[in-house]
Amino acid sequence: MTLNIRFAPSPTGYLHEGHLLSALYVWAMAKLKNYPVHLRIEDHDQSRARNEYIDAIYEDLEWFGFEWDSKSKQSNRHEIYEQALYKLEKQHLIYGCDCSRKSLSLENPSSSDGEIIYQRHCLNKDLKITPPNTTRLIVESSPVQWNDLKLGPFTENPAVQCGDFALRDRLGQWTYQFAVCVDDIEENIGMIVRGEDLRSSTARQIFLMSLLGKKTPPHYFHHSLLYDPLTGLKLSKRQHSQSLRAEKMKGLSREVLLGQICFKLHLIEKEVPMTLNESIFLFSKQIEGYLQ
User: Fold this and answer.
1) What phi and psi values does residue 56 have, to the nearest 5 degrees?
2) In sequence order, what are the residues at sequence separation of 6 or more whose Cβ sits closer than 8 angstroms to the Cβ of residue 152?
3) How far apart are CA 113 and CA 121, in angstroms?
């Protein structure tokens, strides 16, 4: 069966330079390793996802010239997630949790980056695993070893990092951690290229995928991020980073935008317009340097 690589934006805002950076890494790795590209719309958070953003994702990627071999949308995959959850339920690996947002922050320790480490307050309450309760996964303490093609080897313990993490929230929405693991298995993703801000999710995702039957995890490559020069914060929709279509409306060409990205990554010595093929070639040469 053919292994795929995926580009998986969430439609909670318009694409910005950070997404373009990630897309270039994905398509460069696909070219380098001959992976088909799967475009996944990660609209699991229905409270924030918008159809206009989904349409914009397709339009923006097509404007730059990106092509993909297959596509999916998480909101169409509810039954698949239900089946995966039932598989965990049969193994007695999930339970209901009625902790409020306030109690979560007050009654549990947090990691250095502010992530709550859940302490199993509801493990033995025998609560239903349906809304309005959160559904949590039992995460036994066990080290997970994995290798990042760019950053090297890691040994991490999800029980220490996050504890029993949520698979479905109080509103009945699938969480990122759960949906992405089910998707990566079902869509036969063999290579995951994403930003370094998601690196800390890797061990728990490998752990969950193993419970769902995938014993050999995908390969991982976590790339560096782009930061706002004024605030020092990573580019993101939450920080209202300038969107690609806003840049386009100002009259900037796709070649200029691609040249800006290549210059910021020091792939070219001065900021000049670049075609998509030229940009992908430069990114693939950088990736090759990490894989040697």
Assistant:
1) -65, -35
2) none
3) 22
> Mean pLDDT over all residues of the chain?
94
pLDDT digits (tens, 9 = 90+) for 231-249: 555 555 554 568 999 999 9
User: Does residue 26 have a pLDDT over 50?
Assistant: yes
Three-class SS of residue 91?
coil
Global pTM value: 0.94
Count of alpha carbons within 13 angstroms of residue 287, beta-carbon side: 25
CA angle 275, 281, 283 (to 5 degrees): 105
Q: Is the pLDDT of residue 28 over 60?
A: yes
Please give the pLDDT value at position 242.
Answer: 82
| CATH architecture, domain defined by 4-92+174-291 | 3-Layer(aba) Sandwich (3.40)
Which residue in this structure is represented by tokens 């800390």?
200
Cα-based torsion angle of the residue sequence 43, 46, 52, 55 in order, rounded to the nearest 10 degrees: 20
Q: For the chain, what are the domain ranges?
A: 4-92+174-291
